[in-house]
From TrEMBL:
It comes from the Bacteria. It comes from Kineococcus glutinatus. This is Amidohydrolase family protein. InterPro entries: Amidohydro-rel, Aro_Compnd_Degr_Hydrolases, GLI/LigI, Metal_Hydrolase. It holds the Pfam family Amidohydro_2.
Length: 306
């Protein structure tokens, strides 16, 4: 563990002893949303960060990957590293072709830097609209970044909350690259699946080149129960939302653990039990294969066999 940085008070570390999943992930499954944090001694956290996490380096990520039966990872730059992508790139390189990366870049990133990230395995950038995580970026700067990455065939991963969508959808829908939305656009799961909030999100996905991560039930759930202590029917209030997305957009959905689960305040889920959540969301073998293997392979490893 790093001695250089003191964790944010109340920080919850990842689950130390995840269960062995009962659900056997199909061969070639991809965890399409996870992060690495530091370690801070080697990869210092960014001065502008909004939280200081526990260290969660590539060795721990790869151990979890193997424990869960995952084949590949998509490692998403975490805001605690700002636009310094070195920890993420180091992990992607160390994975030897079994990881791709999503970076954070500033509008003044050079073409040479973008090419270097691409060669390392980066396939997109992340736009984060959560005020508790980042200072807001002007939309013209984000549009510039999107134009710069388009020739590389990259996409933009977007993180926003349901209430942000009305103010963002015009901007996002006009970007010249595919979009991948984190955590189903963070719906309010106390509202009906067929209600106006989630309905707007579904229409947005339908009308644009948008992929959706049916991830983070632990972050969205209000009613629980948590994926802890052998609970294999966790976060039941999130299930209808995720199922709806899988049913409507089965060829554009992705799944991820969100390990090491930044900024949770109630509990950190058992990642093995999160795997056991998947068959509640993707019910048929066909849906599961699309979600876990075919879709992420098409987006991140096109032309490669799983
Ligand atoms: C997530 C969620 C969060 C944090 C980050 O980059 C980050 O700091 O993504 C969050 O706090 O909701 O997807 O990992």
């Amino acid at each position: 563990m790093s001695t250089a940085f003191a964790k944010t008070p109340g920080w919850l570390d990842w689950h130390p002893d995840p269960a062995r999943p009962r659900f056997a992930l199909p061969p070639g499954s991809v965890d399409a949303h996870c992060h690495v944090f530091g370690p801070g001694d080697e990869f210092p956290y960014a001065p502008e960060r909004k939280y200081t996490p526990c260290d969660a380096g590539k060795a721990q990520l790869f151990a979890l990957r193997d424990h869960l039966g995952v084949s590949r990872n998509v490692i998403v730059q975490a805001t605690c590293h700002g636009a310094d992508n070195s920890a993420m790139v180091d992990a992607v390189r160390a994975a030897g072709g079994r990881a791709r990366g999503i970076a954070t870049v500033r509008p003044d990133v050079t073409d040479a830097e973008l090419r270097e990230l691409d060669a390392a395995g980066v396939r997109g950038v992340r736009f984060n609209f959560l005020k508790r995580l980042v200072d807001t970026s002007p939309q013209d700067e984000l549009a510039t970044i999107a134009r710069r990455i388009a020739p590389l065939g990259w996409h933009v991963v977007v993180y926003f909350e349901e209430s942000d969508l009305p103010g963002l959808e015009g901007f996002l829908g006009a970007l010249p690259v595919p979009l991948v939305v984190d955590h189903m656009g963070r719906p309010d799961v106390t509202q009906p699946v067929g209600g106006p909030g989630f309905g707007r999100f579904l229409r947005f996905v339908d009308r644009h080149d948008v992929w959706v991560k049916v991830s983070c039930p632990e972050r969205l759930s209000v009613a629980g129960p948590p994926a802890l202590d052998g609970e294999r029917h966790a976060y039941t209030d999130v299930v209808p939302f995720a199922r709806r997305v899988v049913e409507e957009f089965g060829d554009r959905v992705l799944w991820g653990t969100d390990w090491p689960h930044p900024n949770l305040t109630d509990h950190v889920p058992d990642d093995g039990l999160l795997v056991d959540h998947v068959p509640h969301v993707a019910v048929t073998a066909e849906q599961q294969h699309a979600l876990l293997v075919a879709n992420p392979m098409r987006l991140y490893w096109p032309g490669e066999d799983a």
